[in-house]
Structure formats: C-alpha cells, structure tokens
Amino acid sequence: MFPAFSQTKAKTAYFCEPCGNECDRIAFNKPGKCPHCGMALSLQSVATHEKNMNLKRLKVLFYLQNGVEVLDFAGPMEVFSYAGFDVAVVSKTKDPIVAQGVLKIIPQYSIDDAPPADILAFFGGAAGNATNDPAVIKWVQNAPKPEYYFSVCTGAFILGKAGMLDNLTVTTFHESIEELRKAFPKAKVLSNVRFVDNGKIITTAGISAGIDGALHLVEKVRGRDVAVQIAKYMEYDKWVPAQGLVVDKQIGTAK
Amino acid sequence: MFPAFSQTKAKTAYFCEPCGNECDRIAFNKPGKCPHCGMALSLQSVATHEKNMNLKRLKVLFYLQNGVEVLDFAGPMEVFSYAGFDVAVVSKTKDPIVAQGVLKIIPQYSIDDAPPADILAFFGGAAGNATNDPAVIKWVQNAPKPEYYFSVCTGAFILGKAGMLDNLTVTTFHESIEELRKAFPKAKVLSNVRFVDNGKIITTAGISAGIDGALHLVEKVRGRDVAVQIAKYMEYDKWVPAQGLVVDKQIGTAK
C-alpha cells in the first residue's frame, strides 16, 4: 500500500487515471500503481487534479436490446468507464438479455425505473427489437432529455424511429446506409465516416467505430489530452483523433 | 424472405457470412441480406462453401473472472463469433460476475461443468481473482487440453500461474510487462508487440489488442481471407494483418 496524503500541501502529487472510483481523489507521494484500482499513478498538478475532480460525473445509460452486438457497446463502455463516467445498463425489462447469442447480461434498470442520464446511448445488433417496440420508442422520446444522444452501428435506427435524426447529418453500419436513407429520408446519411457529431446527437459507423465515437465524445467534454490518454491506455494504437465529421446546425457543413 | 435452395445444383450461390447459426448453410439465389441473421449475402462457389461448412466448428471457452475488463473479452468474442466459432462463457461458478464494475454477466458454465474446448481464452482486469484462486488454476491445468490457449492483457498471468508460459515468448498489457517478467522469469516477455504466437499459446497486449490477436487466430485456422472479411465487416479499418510476432519453438526466433 502506498502512503496517501489527501491533505497534501504539495503542488504536485501522483494520482491514478480516472477510473470513476473513490481512489480518483487520493494523492500519492510516489509513482507506482494505485493499490485500489491497479491503474498507473501519474504526476499531476494538485490544483488541476482538484479542478478535474469537481467536474460533474456524467451518467451514461447504455440501452441494450436482446441480440445487441457485443463490441458495439463494449468499446464505448470501456472508453466511458476510463473517462470516469458513471455507466449503467438499461433494457426494456430487467430480465436477462443475450448479446450476440452468447453473452447473457442482467440490466441494472428497466425503462420503467431508469434514472435521468447525461448521455443516452444506443447500439446495433437486432436493433429491430427496439425500433419495433412502441414502449421502448416512447421511452426514448419521453426520457428526461440528456446532454447527448449517442448511437453506434444500427443503433441509429432507434434514434431515427424516435424522430431524432430529421434534418441531421448522420451515419450507421456500412451495410445499412441505404436502409437508413430509405427509413429516414429527412436525414442526410453519410457513408465512409467513423462518426458524425451534430452537437447534441453523435452517430457512429459500425461495430468498432463506436470506440472512435466514444473517444470523440470524451474529447468533447473532457479535452483531447484525456481522450488520448485513454486510447493509449487501451492500446487502441492506431486511433486518429478527430477522424470524423463535426457539423454545424446547417446540414453537412463541417466546422 | 429470400428463396433458399439448399439442394441447388448451381455452381455458385449467395451465402451469409459465417455467423455460427444454421443459416450459414442456406444457399440463396440472389444477393441481399440473410433474413435469419441480417448479414450480407455474398456470391460463393457452392463446392467451396460446402467444404468450409464441413470444417469442424471450433468451441471457444471464455474464462471470465469477476472484475474482468469489458473490451478485453468483447473484441475477441465479436471476432470469434463472426468466424462461426461456438463461443461460451465459463467462470468459477455460475453466479453472476460484474465486468469492469458495470456489466453483470451470467456465465453459461462453471469450472465444474465446462465442456472441452478447442480454444481456452483468458482476459485481464482483476486477473488476481483467477491467479489467486487455487481451484481455478487447478482447472486451467487439468481441463482437457485445447488446440490453443489465448490470453489478452493481464490474462497472461493466469496462463503463467498455471505454468504454461515457461520457455515461451509472450506479451501482456503495456503497464504489466515488468510485473510479468518478475512473476515468470522463465518466460521471455516482449513489449511493443500486438500479439505473440507460440503455435499453441497466443498472448496479446492490452485491451483492444485482443481484437488483433483474435483476428490472427482466425487467420491461422481459417485463412487470411476470412480474417480480412471479418475485420472489414467490423469496420476495424486500420487492422494490419500479421502485425505481431510468430515464433518458432526456439525462444524469440521470428518465422
């Protein structure tokens, strides 16, 4: 166990990378690994660290339907967890769902008791189990408005069905581009882009592109340094920041 | 619904990409999406497709300990599922485990009833919950020998504790390289490599590097075309095949 000195008067100290647990707030007086979460300790300005800790901890709700793709949600779940966001899983009910026919998951919340979220996220893989369920779409429409909506892959169809993609530039899984265009003709659907950020609504391309979209959202709210640090920690070596489209309110106008 | 013609005499037909379900065997007479699994249909030689279908369907057991990292296992789970492998989750017991403090998972098997596997896979994130549990290590040592052992991130410590890394060249999570060297001094531990393949034992670097290692293992047993097709489908655009080390029996000799 390393000696911690939370009441330090030193200007710099060693802190673990944000893991979302209480140890994020512990100051250590030498490098090594955090004895609580196991993450590496890095030298930081105490003032900057305290400022970061006072940032609001964002609540992210992952809506997972039965049949959801594993990597669609697991990439963003990893990224948002390392950003220190408070991540939870919601589904139509609290009954177990099976992701990709393999992974049996127990949701924390149902649509009847899900708390308000800062980020509401949707994923592909049997997205029809959400889009064809009026109770789910009604929940998406009526849930307390989050700061950001985020979709990976064919999760975009869920946002579309809830009427949220009209007049926006968006993207989806490469094999579902035409289908999304037909389903939501008021949206401008782009292919060959990792993510499209409309300010409040971020849609990403398929499966592993969710990692890039999540890193972009972290960069947007916590800064590029934090996003780069997370990508490095995850050994997502080939990540290129900002490799997506950020649009102004006017359709298709890149910033 | 597309018309299927499994009894076709045609030389070519449209088949869905291998998803591991029965629809893998259905021949369609025009392109589109598989009405069963939703995957794109591609034109293939009927003879080649039948030959591929007769390949043994590999059984992959994912050992997941409480606290396992989500992306560590989700990347390989996605890759192996698309390769048509039969993937299942085993843990010490069938009680739910929580991955990364967020994702509550119900294992299909416990170490007491896990079936024999062709690939036995281990992952990082609280790996100590496995390495410090004599019953788990005994199971790893005594389980019917698979064709391949596969580890991602600090999952290498589980193989090491079971005595399987001696005299091999291996890798692990970038921040655990020194720790693995100290724990298993008979192993040659490399840094800055996405994966190391010793023939029967494949270890990968941290977290997202598991995707690369899994694609490598698919390439090894099903050929590069299948691995490239899966990477493309997953939109893992920047994947570079063979970006790892394949060693001969002699330590550190690259093929």
Automatic annotation (TrEMBL), chains A, B:
InterPro entries: Class_I_gatase-like, DJ-1/PfpI, HMBD, INH-QAR. GO terms for molecular function: metal ion binding. PANTHER family: ARAC-FAMILY TRANSCRIPTIONAL REGULATOR, DJ-1_PFPI DOMAIN-CONTAINING PROTEIN. GO terms for biological process: regulation of DNA-templated transcription. Pfam families: DJ-1_PfpI (PF01965), HMBD (PF19335). Residues 59-219 form the DJ-1/PfpI domain. Coiled coil: none annotated. Residues 24-41 form the Heavy metal binding domain. This is Uncharacterized protein.
